[in-house]
Design brief:
By secondary structure, the chain is mainly α. It has a domain at about 10-195: I/LWEQ domain. Helices cover about 80% and strands about 0% of the residues. The protein has helices at about 5-45, 50-90, 95-100, 100-130, 135-160, 165-200, 210-255. Helix 1 (about 5-45) runs parallel beside helix 4. The protein is elongated, with a radius of gyration of 24 Å. Keywords: Coiled coil, Cytoplasm.
């Protein structure tokens, strides 16, 4: 007892409190996101009409459905977490259980933070899209991030749950529902983007032959510039992922006390797509 670090007891209390605080914080972030979406819906109805209003309503409705699915998932995850602690702690206190299983606890905290952060980012992206100051692609990326973070939360909870647990079955069902709602956000965003772009398509009927040729050449230049930028961004994404894997490998090695090889990055994303045939 004398040789034990004095900070260990504080660590136990911190871990126990942090799990509850993060779960509560995530729930609060989701509730706030739902309120903000309702406010955006009201604002969109007052400030837009026609196709833009239709697109905004469809996107915001899909975001609301996603937030409701996430809220149910977090609630179910909290119930499962309590079940795991009660069945596994024995005579130990809740704080001692969390400290004894510190790596699992930290994974749970990290997953909960990721879900709350993803919900907040989704709302901010939706707000910018409705105000026409953001990009539709941001909303799509946020939806993918939410699906990934909820999968992380389910995986963290599943590690110590009994296979026959009803709460685990409910959590997996909630996760599938979140994935479905996230896919709906992506679909409504893409269809809305296509509608807006079709509406804003230029009319070339009044242009002279010389003007058309000039526009065509300028567009070809833009295409080449975008292709070069795309190639550069793919390389950058690959390097970011390699660094991410390297840091994740170092973290695992520090936790386990031994080195682990970092997983090789996926090469498919770095492959340059075939260029469109130019006239």
């Amino acid at each position: 007892q004398e040789l034990r670090p004095k900070s260990l007891d504080i660590r136990q209390e911190e871990l126990g409190d942090m799990v509850e605080k993060e779960m509560a914080s995530t729930s609060e972030a989701i509730e706030d996101a739902v309120r903000r979406i309702e406010e955006m819906m009201s604002q969109a109805r007052n400030e837009s009409s026609g196709v833009k209003l239709e697109v905004n309503e469809r996107i915001l409705n899909s975001c609301t459905d996603l937030m409701k699915a996430i809220r149910l998932l977090v609630m179910t995850s909290t119930h499962l977490q309590k079940e795991i602690v009660e069945s596994g702690r024995g005579a130990a206190t809740t704080q001692e259980f969390y400290a004894k299983n510190s790596r699992w606890t930290e994974g749970l905290i990290s997953a909960s933070k990721a879900v709350g952060w993803g919900a907040t980012q989704l709302v901010e992206s939706a707000d910018r899209v409705v105000l026409h100051t953001g990009k539709y692609e941001e909303l799509i990326v946020c939806s993918h991030e939410i699906a990934a973070s909820t999968a992380q939360l389910v995986a963290a909870s599943k590690v110590k749950a009994e296979k026959s647990s009803r709460n685990l079955g409910r959590l997996q069902e909630c996760s599938r529902n979140v994935n479905e709602m996230a896919a709906n956000v992506v679909a409504s965003t893409k269809s809305g983007q296509e509608q807006i772009e079709e509406k804003d398509t230029m009319d070339f009927s009044g242009m002279s032959l010389i003007k058309l040729k000039k526009e065509e050449m300028e567009t070809q230049v833009k295409v080449l510039e975008l292709e070069k930028r795309l190639e550069g961004e793919r390389v950058r994404l690959g390097e970011l992922r390699k660094q991410h894997y390297a840091l994740a490998g170092a973290y695992d090695a520090a936790e386990d006390g031994e080195a682990k090889p970092a997983p090789a990055p996926r090469r498919g994303i770095l492959k340059k797509p075939p260029l469109a045939q130019k006239p």
